[in-house]
Design goal:
Blueprint: E1 3-4, E2 9-13, E3 20-26, H1 36-46, E4 64-65, E5 69-70, E6 73-74, E7 79-84, H2 106-113, H3 129-144, E8 149-157, E9 160-161, H4 170-181, E10 188-195, H5 209-218, E11 223-228, H6 239-242, E12 246-248, E13 254-256, E14 264-265, E15 268-269, E16 274-280, E17 289-293, E18 299-303, H7 313-337
Helix pairs in contact: 1-3, 1-7, 3-7, 5-7
Amino acid sequence: MNTFGRIFRLTTFGESHGPAIGGIIDGVPPGMPLDISLIQQELDKRRPGANPMTSARREADRVQILSGVMDGVTLGTPIGFVIPNTDARSAAYSEMRSKFRPNHADFTYEAKYGVRDYRGGSRASARETACRVVGGAVALQCLASQGIEVSAFVSGIGERSRCSEHDDFAPLLEEVERAHREGDSVGGVVTCIVNGVAAGIGAPLFAKLHAGLGAAMLSIPGVKGFEYGDGFAASASRGTEQLDIFSTDPSGRVITTTNHSGGIQGGIANGMPITMRIAFKPTPTLLRDLATIDTQGNATTLRARGRHDPCIALRGAAVVKAMAAMTLLDHLLLSQSTRL
């Protein structure tokens, strides 16, 4: 459960308020140039404290590569890395030692393990996703060498939305600011688009490409929904409205005139852009009195302290991009291995 992938694999470790978080990346081909500064750029997009509407936790998130890379080139051996935790404030979570936060993983972790690290949510905290961003940044560089590009952006906050990354973001940020002023939080949607995936990548039945992408996205803390192509809107359409008619471009490559399928048919990429949308719930930890129970089952109230995002989707875009990259690279390597 702490390892993602089959050929390209990421194993993560560490707790939100422990000394560090980190991981081991395995399955990276040898001899590939790896730019550490590009990994850091992706981490900076997810880093807390980067703007006033994200968590005030001030983490530098400086990744340290421990193994698997020499002179900027991958060795084909496991890439070990660590990210020190430098701004943990565990005292803010002392009340949560004996009280369960509503809609959080406090109760379910204790139900499963009989013990939990109450500081900052431990492994259930979004802090763990920094490790995924490192793995995703490595995968992005592998994919780029194959002409594959992955992008992700916040396309909706609350009831406001935008169609592309280039549309005005200010109205969406206003929704976050309003919720923050009221001591509340708000959900959001991240759109992810992948270009350059060749037709034939993926597998049918129980190893479908979109099933892998869905599982990857639903593993992100706070994600409540995943759809690709037209998604749920397709259920309100007729068959004639959903047809993606085949054609060819000037080079003779097979394309479709529309992309209702989101670039995947039968679990296999058809060569068109892969499009997906990921729904994030509102942050459950609110800075107000909330009814709950304690570890003995007694009714009580909890007023959370600490530093929390009023909208986790803002930093979630970097994690979505990372999970998409790792999933696609894993499927790409699987497809190559079946042709040997």
